C-alpha cells in the first residue's frame, strides 16, 4: 500500500472537498526507516529531481560531539536508553532524531535524521 501525502478529501467540518487534480507522484510518501542497532547497512533512495538520500538501516557507531571541549569523536553505541517518538522503540533498539543513546563517552542525544541522512550525529548530555 502506498503512502499518500496530498490534501485530504474532507474539510474539518466534515464536508467533502472536490479534488483539483488526481494523485501525483510527488505526493507519494514512503514507509519509515526504522534504524536499528547493528552492523552498518545503507539503502540508497531516489528522491525528487533525481537526487539521492541514504537511509541508514543499521548502525553501531555515532559521531558524538562534546560541547565542553568542542571535539567530535566516532564512538560505539551501546544501547538505546530513551526514545520520545515511541517507548517501544527502546526495547527494539530503534534510533531516530531525538533518541537518547548510551555510548562509550556517556549518554548522547541524536541530532541527525538517520533515515534520511545516512549517518548518526549526536551531542553529549
Question: What are its keywords?
Answer:
125 residues, mainly beta, Structural Genomics Hypothetical 15.5 Kd Protein In mrcA-pckA Intergenic Region, Chain A, four-stranded mixed sheet, 2 helices, 9 strands, 39% strand, ribosomal protein, Small ribosomal subunit protein eS8, structural constituent of ribosome, ribonucleoprotein
- Radius of gyration from CA coordinates: 18 Å
CATH topology: Structural Genomics Hypothetical 15.5 Kd Protein In mrcA-pckA Intergenic Region, Chain A
| Coarse structural class | mainly beta
Apparent shape = elongated
What is the average per-residue confidence, as pLDDT, rounded to a whole number? Answer: 95
Give me the oligomer status: single chain
- How large is the share of residues in beta strands? 35-45%
Determine the number of helices (DSSP H or I, runs of at least 4 residues): 2
Q: Label the CATH architecture.
A: Roll
- Let me know the number of strands: 9
Order of neighbouring strands in the sheet with most strands? 4-5-7-8-9
The first-level CATH class is given as: Alpha Beta
Q: What's the number of domains?
A: 1
Question: What share of residues is helical?
Answer: under 10%
N- to C-terminal separation? 40 Å
From N to C, what is the helix and strand string? EEEEEHEEEHE
Query: Any low-confidence stretches, pLDDT <50, length ≥5?
Result: none
GO molecular function: structural constituent of ribosome
Pfam family, one: Ribosomal_S8e
Region (Disordered): 1-30
Family: Belongs to the eukaryotic ribosomal protein eS8 family.
Amino acid at each position: 500500500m502506498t503512502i499518500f501525502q496530498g490534501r485530504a478529501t474532507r474539510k474539518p467540518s466534515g464536508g467533502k472537498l472536490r479534488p483539483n487534480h488526481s494523485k501525483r507522484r510527488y505526493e507519494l510518501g514512503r514507509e519509515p526507516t526504522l534504524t536499528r542497532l547493528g552492523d552498518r547497512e545503507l539503502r540508497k533512495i531516489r528522491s525528487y529531481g533525481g537526487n539521492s538520500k541514504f537511509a541508514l538501516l543499521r548502525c553501531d557507531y555515532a559521531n558524538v560531539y562534546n560541547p565542553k571541549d568542542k571535539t567530535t569523536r566516532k564512538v560505539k553505541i551501546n544501547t538505546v536508553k530513551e526514545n520520545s517518538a515511541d517507548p517501544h522503540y527502546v526495547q527494539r533498539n530503534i534510533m531516530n532524531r531525538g533518541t537518547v543513546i548510551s555510548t562509550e563517552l556517556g549518554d548522547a542525544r541524536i541530532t541527525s535524521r538517520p533515515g534520511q541522512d545516512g549517518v548518526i550525529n549526536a551531542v553529549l548530555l
